Amino acid sequence: MADRLHGPLHQIISPTQSAFIPNCLISDNILVAHEMFLYIKRRKKGKDKFLALKLDMGKAYDILEWTFIEAMLLKLGFLHYWVSRVMSCIQSVSYSLLINGCIKGSIAPTRGIRQGDPIHQQYLFYAHKHLLQLSEEQRGLESYMELEFGIEVLQSPTFYLLMIVFFFSQVKLGEISSLNQCLDLYCKAMSQEINLKKSSLTFSPNTHVKFKRWLSRVLKVPYCDGPSKYLGLPTDFGISKKDLFREVKEQTLNKLQGWKKKYLSHAEKEILLKASLSPMSNFAGSHFKLAVSHHEDVRKAASNFYWGDSENDSKIHWISWERLGRSKNRGGFGFRDSRLQNQALLAKAAWRLWSSPETHWARFIKSIYFPTLDFLRARLGHNPSWGWCSILEGRDALQEGLLWQIGDGALVDIWQDKWIQSLPHYKLQYPKPVGCTLSTVANIIGPVTRYWRLYLLQQFFHQSDRDAILKINLSLFPSADKLIWGASKDGVFSVKLVYHLLSNLKQVRDKDGAACKASTSRCLQ
User: Fold this and answer.
1) Which residues pair with 102 in a beta bridge?
2) Cβ of 439: how many Cβ atoms within 10 Å?
3) Which of 42, 331, 379, 403 has the greatest number of beta carbons closer than 10 A?
4) Angstrom distances, CA of residue 340 to CA of 147, 151, 274, 277, 503
5) 277 Ramachandran zone, left/alpha/beta (phi>0; psi -120 to 50)
6) How confident is the model over 257-300, as pLDDT tens digits?
7) Contact 393, 465 (CB under 8 A)
8) Residue 331 or residue 262, greater confidence
9) What are the φ and ψ backbone dihedral angles of 405, each rounded to 5 degrees?
10) 371 touches 151 (CB < 8 A)
11) CA-wise closest residue to 419 among 371, 452, 456, 394
């Protein structure tokens, strides 16, 4: 029953819900919250005033009314037979007390659901959908908070997790009263309680203090400068990024404290570093670019721990950390470079934004920064958020592994674009010969035979490039060229492949830089 109820879940609940939905992550709303709060806090002038209301639902599981669950399932269109089967599972629960090792009595509840119930998450999703429907009916679509970025206007009034709801609205009496009525009706229907101590109001700076106080009394929620964190990550970024992620760095370095390094072998230290050090920064690094000082401190602490350094005793580091970070088949131990790992994780966010443009958070980011452009051609823009700067950092890593899949070849430049998977950097290794007029891949494909024009390949291409081109199989039916992930043979994206790709590129650049430096020193001599 749980599997069957999970099937239509994505068709029923709001698109602002991203937890436990296929192709969505629970952390998708982190970037949405980051942009929304940034927009509100930058609104220092103008007549339009905005607010953000954070609601914490207390005891969301324990006091959920059974009658409300049944009515909500029927309203969503489920059959009476199916609803009765679900309600029989909910209402059949009973509890007993264990006193001095003996089972005493039996308690039959009349409301509430168990958190261990296989479909308890779906219940709350349907309940929150009712709250969103009430807000739409009470407030109307025209009164939603509209973020005027670029050309497209995206309406994003609400997003939520299981027990935390965010409302974004304009500071207007009609909207606030409608929202208050909606919340009262929702709490009465579900017997829900709002935890006022954990709830908060945030206003744009152009809102007068008198309005803040009055609206705080109306909603019975205290106002403040806004939640400093959402899902453990900061919502507001200042000039110094080092202080914002200080807690992440401390949690990472604390993993290495308390271990008796004298009694651990190098193999045991290797396992400990790989198992506990990198995962601490992965969650923050999946959404935002971490400070350079953070990576340097982590690298230094890991190197000192591995070689047995302490505050009073310094050991010799017999091998550099860069060599230890190489893969094992290249003579290293496979330690991850936290800076490259951060960039690889951001590449995953860029990949999801590019490959799944229909998701709610992707449409939200697109409406702000590139409403009329493709993501791969989007620009940084004026006064961007740190989240957008981080995504562009991941896009640079993503583009290193993208290559063109040849269809008709009309969009692919022969000499500049990446389109040959078997060659280094996916490009031709030899420059364009003098007198050659070929520009796109379509010029070297027979339009009728759908095969490579061998006489052109023999005339203008080097043998190694020619052999690599002939390995590409062409479709009998021409189609449009498209970009794919070329770092894997099956086209499946993974953070591991991005990291190895970035690591190999870094080694090539370091080797070229060392050779250039050596040649320069010889010339000076």
Assistant:
1) 99
2) 13
3) 403
4) 34, 35, 15, 14, 7
5) alpha
6) 766 666 788 888 888 888 877 777 888 889 999 888 888 888 88
7) no
8) 331
9) -95, 120
10) yes
11) 452
